[in-house]
Each structure stands twice: as structure tokens, then as C-alpha cells.
Amino acid sequence: MFILKKINFSFLSLLIGLGFFAFSLTPSLIPRDNVLQGVLGGIVIAIGYGVGRLLRAVWDYLELPVASDKPARWLSYFVGLPVLGFTLWSLSNAGKWQDSIRARMGMPEVSDTHWLSITLIAAAVFLVFFLIGWAISVLFDWLRIRLHHLLPKRVANVLGFSLLVIVLLSLGNKYVVGTAFKLADETYSKAALFFDADTPPPTDALKSGSAASLIGWGAMGQRGRDYVDSGPTAASISAFTGSSAKEPLRIYVGLENAESAEERAQLAVAEMKRVGAFDRKVLVIAMPTGTGWLDPSGFQTLEYLHHGDVATVAVQYSYLSSPLTLVFETQTGRDQAIALMDAVYGYWAGLSPAHRPRLYLHGLSLGSWSSMASLDLAQMIGDPIQGALWVGPPFPSELWRRATSRRNVDSPYVLPVVGEEKLVRFANQTSMAKSVDKPWGPMRIFYLQHASDAIVFYEPEAAWRRPAWMREPVAFDVSPYLRWVPIVTMLQLAVDMAIATAVPMGFGHNYSADNYIDGWVAVTEPDGWTPETIARLKAYCNLGDLAGCKN
After folding, report:
1. 104-111: which pairs have CB atoms within 8 A and are 24 or more residues apart?
2. Rounded distance between C-alpha atoms, residue 337 and residue 32, angstroms
3. How many CB atoms lie within 10 A of CB 4?
4. Which of 119, 101, 150 is nearest to 41 (CA)?
5. Which one of 133, 251, 327, 454 has the fewest CB atoms closer than 10 angstroms to its CB?
6. Could you tell me the pTM of the whole model?
């Protein structure tokens, strides 16, 4: 009976939560299945309910008048019926809204029971949060009631609330943050296994990790070994192009190959000199994602386009996944990118312009964010590199944000046009033909991004204001039913970031080989390729599956 008396359920607060739930059913950038949608729905119900209870607590604290039972009941009816009606209407349309994105991405439609499973899952999730909230309120009551004997009521309430916050933060620090660090530790523990190479070192002396290499094969890590040991050979490139080709050079330095970012960068340059990377036609400084992974689509396509006359250098800066890297090792990727750029550019700039390779930067996702940090225009004002291809740049990327903010007023936020496009160009899956004939300046910076990529277009400010890209006509891969709702939209986009790769190739955060081909053609302008042969290369690479480009 004591527990039942302590449960104080607020119907008006629940109505706010149901309103949030109804809006959460609207589509965002990435399709959500019934489980994910149900979990999101339960969370937003809990948030809405919490907002209602907080408003009531403030009302009571200010000792404002409260309606009697009968007017309060009529108010509940007056507000409740429209909210319940809107919730039911939203549930009936939830399947249609999700299918509007799925159809654009070639995904199957949701089941007929989509709405029912969403409702049941959301109710269960909300119940869990409600019980947690009830436990917190019981603790708050216990604190403030005991303080009432020592202090004035209002002071006791404020002090009790402050003590409660301290307790919750302490528990959060112990269990939530502790769990995150435990996960990070487990990742590092798994990384230790990377020293047990599952494949023998390469026998080719030009490959990193070989007996002749300056870079240890075991310490290179699994991601590095996979990268070095894969890709097309000179023979496979020649077989496709019908002309002679060189063996592509791939230099990779693992996190454990040297102690510091500067030492790893110097080791990379030494290895580049050993294998003749500075004698190639094209040289790419690539930054991997947080785990050290490099998208095969981004390099194998380039190696075909330039008949293998390509050298790529990459240095690992973390073992953590990109989200954990962004939280716990925000600066490490940037530091490594700057150190590598300084080392490579410093040597490259001292070579004769007539005999050195064309130098480019490249990165996908967190790799592009780190790579952008290394571009110091003041450093190279008299001797610039040739360009950069950055794919799926994360929303905090400063250089990307500055370029987007300088777009021409008649160009969309998701596909900006900056000036005459001599320095910076943006492209999506279908826009390449629009600017292919425009002349470039001495440096070419190219952003490849999908309008459906939440990692690019997430905005924390979406909690209280409509993002600029939501004020424009939607792109072809975005639902026409997309709407902005305070708080809810921000949460939807946060979920979209977490599942940004759970869609077919060519949408969300999945960038296909044919898009990379267009990007590399625009940035590096390879010789001897016609629209017909480029189309044949895209077909050979099987639209991103790299069935033909693997080896």
C-alpha cells in the first residue's frame, strides 16, 4: 500500500508524452523498423511525460493556484481527446511514412502489424522509464521531507533537489561513464589480438609489413593488414583496361608501430621513400575511420582510373569505433592528420614540381573530418596540393560548415554551389553531370554527400529550431512527409546517425564505388577515360560491391 500511495500518475503529462510519440512516428532520414521505432517512441513518451511533471513541479513550487477536480477533469477531456485522436491517426499513417523512405531506397515495405508492434514496444519502454522516474521521485521526497525539519520548505526543496542531482551524477559517473570506458577497454583488449596476424607477411618487398619493410606486420593491426593485403594488382588492372599498369602502392602505419603521431608520420614518410611513393603519378594522404578502416571503394577505383600509378599512405590513430573516438579521442585523429600532412607535404614541397606526384587528401566520415583539419591553406599558399575528396563529412567539420555557409543563395543546403565552383564543389548520387564541364582552379576540393546521410546533416540545434535543409524542397532520397518538431526531430536524427549504414548502398552513410569513381574523375582527371569506359568500370565494380575491383 505504501508503494501504491507513492505512485502519482499524471494524465496531462501523459498527453504531452503521447503528443511527442505521435510526432516521433513521422519519417526522418533513415527508415526505422518496428523495434527501433518502438524504442524511440517509448523514449519520447518518457521525455514528454517528464516535461509535464517538471512544469507541474515548477507550478507547485511557485504556489500558483490549482484547478479543482471538476475543472481539471474537463481540461483533461478537452486536451485529451484531440491528442488521442492525433496519436491514433499518426499510428495509422506510420507504415505509409516509413514506406515513403523505403521506396526511395529500394527497401521492402513494412508489415501490416507495424503499428501494433510499435505501440507495444513503446508502452514497455515508457513503463521502464516511468518506474525509474518514480524511484527518483521517491528518493527526492525522502530527502526533502527530512530537510523540512531543519530548513524552510522552499529551501529544503531546492537543497533536496540539489542533493538528488549530485547522487544521480555520481551514479551516472560510476555506471554509465564507467560502462563506456569498460567498452573502450574491451576494444583495446581486442586490439591486442591484432598482433597475432592471421595472415603471413607479404612477400612483395614493395608492400608495408614485408621483410624489407620498415613497418612491422603484426603491429600494423588487422585493419591495416587487410588494407595492404587487398586491392587490385597490376595484372588485374591491365586485364580490364587493356594497357600496361603498375602495382599500386599502399603504405599503412598502425597505431602501435610508433609511440607518437609525429613518429608514426615520419615512419610513413620513410616507408614512402623506400618503396618509391614519391615517384608515382598520384599520391593520396588518406585518413581512416576511428578503427583504422579504409573503405575499399575509395582506393580500388582510383587505382583502376590511374592504371595502378598510385601511392596511398594512411596512419591509424585509434582502435575505437568512430562514435567512441569522437567522444573519448576527439583530438587524436586531427593531431595524426596534421602530423602526417606536415611530414608528407614537407618532403613533397621540396621536390621538383616537374617530377613529383600530384598530391591529394582523402577521408570518409571521421576520416574526412580529421583530414580536413590537416589542410592549412596558409602553409601551402605558394605551392598548393592538387585537391581533396572528402566523403560523408560529419556535421561538426569546420571546413565543410564554412564552405556550406558560403553557398550561393539559389543553391540548396544539401547540395551547395559555392561561387563559380573553381575551388569547392559538392555532389550527391546524381548531380555529377551538372558541373563536369566547369573549369577548376589550381586546387580542387570535392565533397561527396547524400541528403539522406544524418552523419552529415545532424544538428543538435534541431531540438529548438528548424534546420536550414528542412526549409527547402526535399531531395530525391528524402521522404516528402519529413517535418520538423522541436526536440523530437533532434532525437530522430540522433537515431538516424546510429543506423546511417543500415540502408542499401548509395544512401545514408553508404557511399558506392560508382560515386567514388565520379568523385575521383572530377578531382584527379585521369587520362584516357571516356564516358563509355567509365560506365564500364562502374559496371565492373558492380555499383559499390567491388565484385570486379577486389583483385
Report:
1. 104/476, 104/477, 104/478, 104/479, 104/507, 105/31, 105/452, 105/477, 105/503, 105/504, 105/507, 105/508, 106/504, 107/31, 107/503, 107/504, 110/33, 110/34, 111/34
2. 35
3. 6
4. 119
5. 327
6. 0.85
